[in-house]
Amino acid sequence: MSEIIPKRVEDSMVETVHLVRPTHLNSAGRLFGGVLMQWIDEAAGIVAKRHCMSNITTASVDNLRFIRGAYQNDMVVIRAKMTYTGHTSMEIRVDTYVEDPTGMRRPINRAYFTVVALDENDRPKEVPRLIVESETEKAEWEGALKRRENRLMRKEEGF
């Protein structure tokens, strides 16, 4: 059996950019939440796949916050990074911004995804340990532990 090599946060970090087109808009003229959900789920999935180098599945999305809207021709920047790893699960933080022509970014969304690594039989498999180095990464890890505890409590309570 091969050794699972730990990875750093930056080893799997992702940044994607999307231009909001007319087909992405809801009836109010803003970026449709479902389109944004697809974009951020894809970014989280890429981070997870890079980290565990296997197939994955999204288990849950926590703390999905829509801070403000995005509109036609806005440039939407999505940054995703690993914040925590368990035995078979990973937590990924996804921040979304609208970037103006000067490069200034305004936050429009934040979410935390729990993703599970899968083996060739679609069963959960062990993931590489996450190496946390900076104070920010350590704070994210601690926050992830609290979010994990809350998820388990909600599951136990049936919601």
From TrEMBL:
<feature type="domain" description="HotDog ACOT-type">
    <location>
        <begin position="10"/>
        <end position="121"/>
    </location>
</feature>
<dbReference type="GO" id="GO:0005737">
    <property type="term" value="C:cytoplasm"/>
</dbReference>
<dbReference type="InterPro" id="IPR029069">
    <property type="entry name" value="HotDog_dom_sf"/>
</dbReference>
<dbReference type="InterPro" id="IPR040170">
    <property type="entry name" value="Cytosol_ACT"/>
</dbReference>
<keyword id="KW-0378">Hydrolase</keyword>
<dbReference type="InterPro" id="IPR006683">
    <property type="entry name" value="Thioestr_dom"/>
</dbReference>
<comment type="similarity">
    <text>Belongs to the acyl coenzyme A hydrolase family.</text>
</comment>
<dbReference type="InterPro" id="IPR033120">
    <property type="entry name" value="HOTDOG_ACOT"/>
</dbReference>
<dbReference type="GO" id="GO:0006637">
    <property type="term" value="P:acyl-CoA metabolic process"/>
</dbReference>
<protein>
    <submittedName>
        <fullName>Protein VdlD</fullName>
    </submittedName>
</protein>
<dbReference type="GO" id="GO:0052816">
    <property type="term" value="F:long-chain fatty acyl-CoA hydrolase activity"/>
</dbReference>
<dbReference type="Pfam" id="PF03061">
    <property type="entry name" value="4HBT"/>
</dbReference>
